[in-house]
Amino acid sequence: MITNEVERKVGLRNTLEFIKANETKVLLLRPDTKLTEAGGVVRTEPSLLPAQSFRIVPMSGLVWDRSRTTPDEGRIDDVTEQLIGMPDADVLKNDYFEAEDQTGWYQVTHISPVQGYRKEARLRFSTSEPKA
Q1: Would you say residue 131 lies in a domain?
Q2: How would you class 101 by CB atoms within 10 Å of its CB: exposed for 0-12, middle for 13-18, buried for 19 or more?
Q3: Which one, 14, 20, 101, 118, has the greatest CB density within 10 A?
Q4: What is the predicted pLDDT for the residue at 116?
Q5: Where residue 95 sits, what CATH number does that domain have?
Q6: Is residue 107 within 8 Å of 83, Cβ to Cβ?
Q7: In a domain, 105, yes or no
Q8: Is residue 10 part of a domain?
Q9: 70-76 contacts: CB < 8 A, separation 24 or more?
Q10: Cα separation values, 128 from 97, 107, 125, Å
């Protein structure tokens, strides 16, 4: 077995165990739109995806305060948590879900382009349901 294959298998196993250590079952809502006869777009009810296993990891606001405008990136939403899943997890930017304790909502603001042994997304917490 080549080194890259061994590393990939170890990475997948480590990700699975990391998720299991503090697993959260998430029911993602995916915003949907449809085209109008006039060529516009209207929002429809979001699609509810099947439950998936993730781990939610809090992030430091001092490290990830992205709400301020930066010259090279413009305004980027502040993120409060990281969502870690297996590489085949079905999650897209703007998906959202209610917090387990029902105190608010998490919205996916970014999906890491890095592919490999896990899928990583950034979340923003809000007390109101996103209007994606």
Answers
A1: no
A2: exposed
A3: 118
A4: 87
A5: 2.40.10.270
A6: no
A7: yes
A8: yes
A9: 76/109
A10: 11, 11, 9
DSSP string over 76-116: -----EEEEE-TT----TT-EEE-TTSS-EEEEEEE----S
Written as six digits, the tokens of 82 are 């990281």
Which 3 state secondary structure label does DSSP give 29?
strand
Reading the block at residue 90, the tokens are 């079905």
Amino acid at 110: H
Q: Which two tokens stand for residue 62?
A: 């001092």
Report how many helices (DSSP H) and strands (DSSP E) the chain contains, helices first. Answer: 2, 8
Of 108, 98, 43, 103, whose CA–CA distance to 77 is shortest? 108
The tally of domains found in the chain comes to: 1
Q: Rounded distance, CA 19 to CA 3, Å? A: 24
The whole domain housing 13 covers: 3-126
The two structure tokens encoding residue 38:
């006039």
- Enter the pTM of the model: 0.80
**C-alpha angle with apex 86: 128 to 98, nearest 5 degrees?**
15
